[in-house]
């Protein structure tokens, strides 16, 4: 049963000799280590632009970029672009992840369904969302539906794979107990299958969202007229690389925060579901 | 150790100094950039492509160690701005809107010659009744923004008594424009001759051709040099411009028309499409390299456009940017004044 708790119990054992010191050290390391690389990159960037190693048009000075960021923030351009992008993610995710969940359940629970649908699904899943773009543009045009379909597809695949995995790996012992107790299908699903799938669903959600985020930026760059991805393309067109850099930083930070939040939610859910017990 | 270092520095200074005092005559390589189209090896569709294919510039450097490198950028204007900024190009030929953007953002370019005109087409869905620019009112039009095509659409709208607010503009790249009109996501598209095959396929019908809209309807652009190169190699710069003007002179000769179309077809458009795109235009006038009042007026309209559309944050001083001496020298030494007399701002010939 401790498939997912290995990490945590391991840490507790190691921390046993001197819990206090270890905690302080690990906290410092957790805060300092991840910041070392960004700080180094920032320093290198600063040095490169101040000393003119790269032309200012290609790599504007960090303080110019900051100034442009404040301008864009004040004018509401960033907020407007981000709002458009997040609405797309939300819609694509709701559609894609819920369909993915149902489909994953189907191929995970029924071997017949898996035999019929599985190979086709895996083949289609291998084509990246962006590979669908030329055909989808012809079918759907360049409207909002195009972006939603691409995002839904991006969410569908990881969600379906995780759910199917979860549905297949309901612990054997519990299944046997359920068989002996002659549980009704309904009770069995809600009391046994679903709880044991929670960790899989949680990681499915996290994977889908990160996939959606990547696809969103690409689809907005290729066939968009608004959103964060388009803002970056437009910055390049105007030869204002500061806008591009801002776009990259915003996307990076938002993506990181999203992932972090989901990770927290995931471990919370896991604790709650008792998957670690 | 210190002594050694200072000696080394001294030696380096002497060598470099001596080198720069007679650096003229022999740039090792001259690098040219142009807008490119097509798969595999992209190629250009303007004057510079002719100068490259027919070796007009290369002929000027025959017998010297100087090598020429031509690069055709499928990333169009923005990619050329980036290459200039990185010091990867000495000369470049591209549309006015992106090169004004580059200049306004601090590229040290100098305009040496006009690259002539580009014909801009408007194509509309055949099931809609769009027969002229005025019919675009309330319609959805796809263009690639921040290009000379964008300028072309806005100017055409203004000439027809409409403004930008009367249409919905959708910013799409060329390939996506074709898909969007085929899927009926947009009502019309504006672009170069890549739109012409749409008519044959029945996907759209051409309702606008810039060359039929008077002298100032066509798109425009320039042949530029980096100020650094011009200062270091004024003689080589003159030779390059001579070759460029010779290419324009060759194009002006009607017997070369078919060969020119064949050269441009290397960029992917079939010869008949190029012929159709150029029907009714004299190539000599379309590819006039001079920097006369007509050219200046067009660039002023380009700068005003970039300002109005907020494509640039700073103004561009056109008088500082244009250097007429090279192209005027070339026209004079080749005796071509009668082929390309001065044009007024409105495009009327002046004697």
Automatic annotation (TrEMBL), chain A:
GO CC, any one term? plasma membrane
Q: Which residues cross the membrane?
A: 27-48, 93-109, 121-142, 238-262
Tell me the keywords, alphabetical order. Cell membrane, Membrane, Transmembrane, Transmembrane helix, Transport
* Record domain ABC transmembrane type-1: where: 82-262
- Give its localization: Cell membrane
Question: Does the record bear Transmembrane in its keywords?
Answer: yes
Q: Which CDD domains match?
A: TM_PBP2
Q: Identify its protein family.
A: Belongs to the binding-protein-dependent transport system permease family.
What GO biological process term is on the record, naming one?
A: transmembrane transport
State the protein's name: ABC transporter permease
Matches recorded under PROSITE patterns: ABC_TM1
Q: Which organism is it from?
A: Rhizobium deserti
Membrane topology, from the record? Multi-pass membrane protein
Does the record bear Disulfide bond in its keywords?
Answer: no
Its primary localisation, in coarse terms, equals membrane
Q: Which InterPro entries match?
A: MetI-like, MetI-like_sf
From TrEMBL, chain B:
Name of the featured protein? Sulfate ester transporter substrate-binding protein
What's the short name of a Pfam family annotated to this entry?
NMT1
Q: Which residues form the SsuA/THI5-like domain?
A: 80-253
Output the lineage of the source organism.
Bacteria, Pseudomonadati, Pseudomonadota, Alphaproteobacteria, Hyphomicrobiales
Q: Which InterPro entries would you find in this protein's record?
A: SsuA/THI5
Supply the PANTHER family for this chain: ABC TRANSPORTER SUBSTRATE-BINDING PROTEIN, ALIPHATIC SULFONATES-BINDING PROTEIN-RELATED
Signal sequence coordinates: 1-23
Is Signal one of the keywords UniProt gives this record? yes
Q: What are the alphabetically sorted keywords of the record?
A: Signal
């Amino acid at each position: 049963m401790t498939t997912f708790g290995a990490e945590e119990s391991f840490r507790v054992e190691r921390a046993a000799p001197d819990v206090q010191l270890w905690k302080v050290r690990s906290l410092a390391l957790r805060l300092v280590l991840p910041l070392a690389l960004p700080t180094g990159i920032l320093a290198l960037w600063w040095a490169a632009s101040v000393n003119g190693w790269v032309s200012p048009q290609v790599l504007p000075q960090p303080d110019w970029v900051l100034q442009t960021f404040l301008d864009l923030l004040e004018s509401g351009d960033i907020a407007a672009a981000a709002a458009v992008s997040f609405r797309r993610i939300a819609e694509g995710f709701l559609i894609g992840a819920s369909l993915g969940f149902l489909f994953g359940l189907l191929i995970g629970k029924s071997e017949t369904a898996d035999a019929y649908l599985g190979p086709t699904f895996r083949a289609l899943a291998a084509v990246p969302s962006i590979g669908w773009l030329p055909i989808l543009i012809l079918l759907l045009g360049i409207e909002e539906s195009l972006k939603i379909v691409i995002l839904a597809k991006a969410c569908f695949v990881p969600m379906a794979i995780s759910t199917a995995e979860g549905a297949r790996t309901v612990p054997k012992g519990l299944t046997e107990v359920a068989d002996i107790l002659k549980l009704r299908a309904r009770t069995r699903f809600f009391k046994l299958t679903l709880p044991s799938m929670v960790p899989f669903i949680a990681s499915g959600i996290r994977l889908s969202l990160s996939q959606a985020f990547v696809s969103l930026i690409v689809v907005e760059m290729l066939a968009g007229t608004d959103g964060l991805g388009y803002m970056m393309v437009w910055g390049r067109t105007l030869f204002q690389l500061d806008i591009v850099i801002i776009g990259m930083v915003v996307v990076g930070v938002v993506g990181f925060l999203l992932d972090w939040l989901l990770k927290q939610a995931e471990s919370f859910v896991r604790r709650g579901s008792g998957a670690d017990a | 150790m210190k002594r050694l270092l200072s000696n080394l520095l001294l030696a380096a200074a002497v060598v470099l100094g001596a080198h720069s005092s007679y650096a003229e005559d022999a740039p090792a390589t001259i690098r040219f950039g142009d807008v490119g189209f097509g798969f595999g090896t992209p190629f250009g569709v303007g004057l510079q492509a002719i100068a490259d294919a027919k070796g007009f510039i290369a002929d000027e450097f025959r017998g010297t160690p100087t090598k020429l490198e031509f690069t055709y950028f499928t990333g169009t204007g923005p990619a050329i701005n980036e290459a200039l900024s990185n010091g990867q190009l000495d000369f470049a030929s591209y549309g006015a809107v992106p090169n004004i953007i580059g200049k306004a953002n601090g590229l040290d370019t100098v305009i040496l010659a006009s690259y002539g005109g580009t014909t801009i087409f408007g194509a509309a869905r055949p099931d809609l009744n769009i027969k002229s620019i005025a019919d675009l009112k309330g319609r959805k039009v796809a263009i690639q923004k921040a290009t000379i095509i964008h300028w072309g659409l806005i100017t055409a709208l203004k000439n027809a008594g409409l403004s930008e607010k009367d249409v919905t503009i959708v910013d799409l790249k060329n390939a996506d424009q074709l898909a969007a009109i085929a899927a009926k996501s947009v009502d019309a598209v504006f672009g170069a001759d890549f739109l012409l095959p749409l008519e044959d396929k029945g996907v759209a019908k051409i309702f606008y051709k810039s060359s039929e809209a008077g002298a100032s309807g066509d798109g425009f652009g320039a042949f530029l040099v980096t100020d650094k190169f011009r200062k270091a190699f004024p003689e080589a710069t003159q030779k390059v411009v001579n070759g460029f003007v010779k290419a324009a002179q060759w194009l002006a000769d009607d017997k070369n028309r078919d060969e020119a179309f064949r050269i441009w077809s290397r960029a992917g458009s079939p010869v008949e499409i190029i012929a159709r795109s150029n029907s009714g235009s004299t190539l000599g006038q379309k590819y006039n390299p001079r920097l006369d009042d007509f050219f200046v007026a067009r660039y002023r309209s380009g700068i005003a456009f970039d300002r109005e559309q907020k494509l640039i944050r700073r103004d561009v001083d056109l008088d500082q940017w244009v250097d007429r001496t090279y192209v005027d020298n070339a026209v004079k030494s080749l005796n071509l004044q009668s082929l390309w007399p001065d044009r007024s701002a409105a495009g009327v010939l002046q004697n």
